[in-house]
Design goal:
alpha+beta, four-stranded mixed β-sheet
Amino acid sequence: ETEYSELPNHLLSFKFDPATPDWFPVGENNKLYPGMFVGTKLAERLGIAVGQQVKLSYAPPGSDKLARKTFIATSTFRSGSPIKDDYGIFIPLSAAQELFIEPATGDVGRIHVFSVWLDDPSQADAMEDQIAKTACTAMEPVSGRGVSTYTWQKQWQSVAQGMAHENMLQEIVLALMVVSSGFCVFAILSTLVSRRVRDVGLLRCMGASRRQVILIFLLVGGIIGTAGAALGVAGGLWMCFPASAPRVGVYFEMLTGQPLYPPHLFGIESLTVTVYPLKTALYACGAALVSVIAAAYPAVWAASCQPVEALRDE
């Protein structure tokens, strides 16, 4: 189980030992009552403390009355999913089977829902039909029931579409930012040329050719673009790490008082960060290239200055 489940990584009060076959620690209380893992928000809302006895109400099969069973709150967990942290509990499989034993036959109640986790989540839709056929084939000797399947991509389709739309807008904003940075470089170098006309004339009098003057100002534009892109990439990477709790979310909430992705809209409390080196390099190189292009007109302007015109007041 530990090879597939992420639950042990989210436990706050009890650290799971992979060498122990039972997830729930064995103690004096556990000899009398089984353990229970409780979501942090649920524990806060109900006032459940670790080590406290908790009575769980449930509906036994074949009965129209609720029954109760006592558990020990062994640990709390925080998964980052409001659905699980606000309402979720985990109990041992053996205890869960005892709750739903059919009194008349003694048979354990059927499993109505199960999940399949894939190494590549993007293949969920492609594997859906194959999993459904396998489940139907396995149930055919026992029951004629059908199978209803859904993938995380279908379950969160609206959220995925919203985030895809947001990513597209971010691409547009990034492109506009790169273009606006080109205008900034153009303004800086145009001002520099207008203030350094005499210096350009002096360079021409000392033997510098127009091509050399153009290369000087293109080099200045390239240095500005490269330095800005390097600082931007470094600052962006710093804001994105640590990957499990990126600083950008923390500072965004500090500045605005609102989470970067509100849990009631997206169903998540936190995001992990994935850095795409190729896309990062593309934008960095694009910013440097735009800076060089923006420096072209001021460079030609500077090279077109006549030495006599530049130095006539000297």
